[in-house]
Design the sequence.
């Protein structure tokens, strides 16, 4: 089975929490804080696997989650970093944010490995928070959370030359005789349901990669049939070869076929029409009336050669005219843009800028609930509680950071006293 798109869920690992502990050794009555730091959470890394040519594996496994970092331990022990999760994809895979459709990464050319989601950083142990005024900090920093995202994977083949045309015009046969590709060939519509790539070797070590793009139909740019699935594979090609039935074996009009396909290309992506084009009038061996064959080729040349598009009458079966076609395509490649289209990054993963600062809630001997820690000090440093807006912010801060939940877990009741450094107030819901 060939699969060229998949929707998958990815998640990086959470950083391990910092540890709260104090030295407890013989002859040392009141040892200082020695809680260690948490380990880093695992990254989610996408990596090109040259042996893959399909996204079919992602049809069966749709969730990829990296491991969490280990928490810190006593005696300044650092928690172990989690192992990164490596997701292998075929070359040419474009990774997009599923919700917005924006490009996160294009796994092509030089970009063979990329970190898509970074793991959370480990939290600091309480040994980092000892100060002259707080020598026994009973809090540590929690690990940074991991990131999660639904992504769309799209495989866009990487080829120098794309063969385009309606079904059953001989694209697969042409590819099979000029390259090492072995596509399925039969005399019925939509034989080819997935792109085939082949290497065309010319004299003096020259050559190029050619792709048989599955047959297009009118309305493909609107998604009719397998339109979008087929059209996206053309985006990376540098030269387009229109293969038409020069013998009109099935009664098709070669001129109209080319016009229709160019309209579909323009509707899907106008940039596609800026690529050099060539016309291969195939099946000339099936023409018994040479005047008719001359007439078809003449009409094609009259219509398209003024636009700079050369016409080659060929037969993929007898190889008539094929050599001349290939050498012309090779010359076009020398003047075309060097290298396949690479899709630029459009989407940035948003990470937390600062590590979340810790705090602690505990009960004092007089029954008051004491809340302390760097997060509280920082908030009180920039909040004016005498103003209405400042006090409103203070209340929202207590709720959004989970401090109120922690106070309730500690058993606080209405009317109980809460202390935060120099601030003291009674608790009411």
Sequence:
């Amino acid at each position: 089975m060939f699969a060229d798109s998949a929707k998958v869920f990815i998640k990086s690992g959470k950083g391990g929490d910092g540890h709260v502990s104090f030295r407890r050794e013989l002859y040392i009555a009141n040892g200082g804080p020695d809680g260690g730091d948490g380990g880093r959470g695992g990254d989610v890394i996408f990596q090109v696997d040259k042996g893959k040519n399909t996204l079919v594996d992602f049809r069966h496994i749709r969730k990829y989650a990296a491991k969490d970092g280990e928490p810190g331990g006593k005696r300044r022990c650092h928690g172990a970093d989690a192992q990164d999760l490596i997701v292998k994809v075929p070359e040419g895979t474009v990774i997009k944010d599923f919700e917005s459709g924006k490009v996160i990464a294009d796994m092509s050319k030089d970009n063979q490995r990329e970190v898509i989601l970074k793991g959370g950083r480990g939290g600091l142990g309480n040994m980092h928070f000892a100060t002259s005024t707080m020598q026994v900090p009973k809090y540590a920093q929690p690990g940074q959370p991991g990131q999660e995202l639904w992504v769309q994977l799209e495989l866009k083949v990487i080829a120098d030359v794309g063969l385009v045309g309606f079904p059953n015009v001989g694209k697969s046969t042409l590819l099979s005789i000029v390259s090492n590709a072995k596509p399925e060939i039969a005399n019925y519509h939509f034989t080819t349901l997935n792109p085939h790539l082949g290497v065309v070797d010319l004299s003096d070590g020259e050559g190029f990669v050619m792709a048989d793009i599955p047959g297009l139909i009118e309305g493909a740019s609107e998604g009719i049939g397998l339109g979008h699935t087929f059209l996206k594979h053309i985006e990376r090609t540098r030269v387009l070869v229109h293969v038409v039935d020069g013998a009109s074996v099935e009664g098709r009009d070669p001129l109209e076929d080319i016009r229709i396909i160019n309209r579909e290309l323009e509707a899907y992506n106008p940039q596609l029409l800026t690529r050099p084009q060539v016309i291969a009038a195939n099946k000339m061996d099936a023409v018994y009336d040479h005047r008719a064959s001359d007439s078809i080729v003449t009409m094609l040349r009259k219509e398209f050669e003024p636009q700079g598009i050369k016409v080659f009458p060929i037969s993929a079966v007898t190889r008539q005219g094929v050599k001349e076609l290939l050498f012309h395509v090779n010359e076009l490649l020398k003047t075309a843009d060097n290298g396949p289209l690479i899709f630029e990054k459009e989407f940035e993963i948003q990470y937390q800028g600062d590590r979340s600062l810790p705090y602690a809630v505990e009960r004092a001997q007089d029954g008051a609930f004491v809340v302390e820690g760097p997060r509280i000090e920082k908030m009180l440093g920039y909040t004016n509680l005498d103003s209405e807006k400042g006090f409103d912010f203070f209340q929202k801060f207590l709720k959004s950071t989970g401090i109120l939940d922690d106070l309730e877990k500690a058993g606080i009741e209405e009317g109980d006293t809460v202390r935060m450094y120099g601030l003291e107030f009674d608790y009411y819901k």
Q: What stands out?
A: Residues 183-192 have pLDDT under 50 and may be disordered. Residues 353 and 416 are 35 Å apart (CA to CA). The longest helix spans residues 254-268.
